[in-house]
Amino acid sequence: MKKQTIDSRPAGPKPWYDPRVRALVFQVISLAVVCWAGWTLIGNTLSNMESRGISTGFGFLDESAGFGIIMHLVPYDATMSYGRTFWVGLTNTLLVSAMGIVAATILGFLIGVARLSSNWLVARISLAYIELIRNIPLLLQIFFWYFAVLSNLPSPRQSMEVGGALFLNNRGLYLPGPITQEGFGLVWGAILLAIVAVVGIRKWAKKRQMATGKIFPTVKVSVALLILLPLLAFVIAGRPLDWELPVLKGFNFGGGISLIPELAALWLALSLYTASFIAEIVRSGILSVSQGQTEASKALGLPNGLTLRLVVIPQAMRVIIPPLTSQYLNLVKNSSLATAIGYPDLVAVFMGTTLNQTGQAVEVVAITMAVYLTISLLISLFMNVYNRAVAIKER
Amino acid sequence: MKKAISVAVGMALVAGALTTTSVFAATTLESVKQKGHLQCGVTSGLPGFSQPDEKGSWTGIDVDTCRAVAAAVFGDAKAVEFTPLTAKERLTALQSGEIDILSRNTTWTLTRDASLGLNFAGVNYYDGQGFLVNKDIGVDDATQLDGATVCIQAGTTTELNLSDYFRAKGMDFKPIVFDTSEQSVQGFAAGRCDVLTSDRSQLAALRSKLADPNSAKILPNTISKEPLGPVVRQGDDEWFNIVKWVLFVQINAEELGITEANVDDMLKSDNPNVQRLLGTDGDMGAKLGVPDDFGYAIVKQVGNYGEMYDRNIGPDTALGLERGINALWTNGGIMYAPPVR
Q: Can you give the pTM of this predicted structure?
């Protein structure tokens, strides 16, 4: 009897008991539901907007914008299109994000290392900084830097100045602007050449060290090359550079380069805030490297600096990179708080004024979200590539 | 597997909820009556127009416009709930049905009227854009503002007018755009900009918020037309008519001399115009879909247009705005309402 039962059993389980079939069916159903939900959402939005007489489409991007923007890295004036305001906003967002990432990284690493210093005072000051800054909402910090600092600066007519070239007042920081003359191309060429040479020397020096054990002073030579070569070209080309000084005319300074207080406040707040998080990440990274590694490198006779640079940091990086990526993403997204103090970033210009003047809320918000998503994904991609380069290679 | 099923079911439910399209199936009047109150979009705080007082109840001419609509619909001017909105949020809030009426000094323009699915139901204040400057910069006229830094509030027609004006005059300016009017005043007070620009009535209100209002003055130039008034969603003519005629009734009441104080006596008036307006004769209310005595309720509880003006922004208030072009047409202004008949 028993034997018969075993024989009459089907080869596999019934389809609805087969885990592979079930998994596939559920995935197909899920995908269908998601697609259907998305499609209905879009269809509903379009038909609702039409029934309420709200015009749709992206045609508005070609219409003339008609409003002014205080700071633009790409040429802009009020006669240009709404599409142009998008680029103005985007470049301003990218500028403050890039500046913020660089400053926050440098500051964060310094504070993170200082936090582990054996000097009691340095360690405590770093601790106080981290706990103070990361526990106050970013928006308040932006307001603090903007309004508290701004109201303490003098008006343009009573500007603080340094040698008639550098002015600081409540309208911003004014610096002399370089104007390149004919022949400046030679200097650019020299800079490029210096960079190529530095890369070559580094490769060669490493190869030689591997082969012979002799150490070449790469850093010193690189710095010398990077400074001297362009300088030489500059002199040969007949110093093709003029400086345009800022001059007070009417209400404000004109000419030269100006750094508006909105950018300064936002940059400062974003950098200081994110640096406090990066410092903690750096500390955790360094602490994750076992004490034995340090002891071993000391036993080999490596000095403190080299121990940190060659043994501890490369291993710490493996722990640091992934959370660091998140901080970079946060910084970029937090830069949208710019709108609170009037810095013309993407959200303030495009999702603010442009959206309001055109009323195309759905289109503008969709474009803006797509942009932030793209920026964030690009940063993630770049950081993941870097992460793969520093990750443990198991052979 | 259980998890996968519950996820799928959850998604199906969400999707089902999303497909429930007709949020606006009922007319605005029906949904307002059903809720038992009017949801009115106002500013987050602009003296004279809409601002909560020390007791937390909203006051201002824009607030009174909403109260008058509530008085017409419910016979109770207090049946209103207010939603404070920034300039950026206001139109979307109305489009999406979050509010029933937007009364938030909003300028009537062709684009807003024609392409945003909105209708302007009238004008409760004729305004124009002006400039507020610090007295110590020594500027007497807007034509001297070449190169000035200007603080503006985001999401307003002001931004475009400003740009147009400076371009037409061949002058240069630097705009600093803030999210709310409070922030733009802060920026002005902190010295970030030489000029604050907005509708003249707003400037008067914002000036009264400065630490020392006498340190600043409003320049004589008016660079634009800014007709401000209540806005409703397009496609609901019944509601559009109600809001439109509430305002007309207030203006007509002033013209006929009906006030909060004498409205009860006026009920006995022999003047057919007064009788129709107060609902003692005819069925004007029924034609609009509100009670016949809606005119009486409006004047009794909110007052006529002139009273609403004087109480909130008139010469005796902190704003001290003269009637000017907002006077009745019989007094040299342009406030003119079609007859109630």
A: 0.78
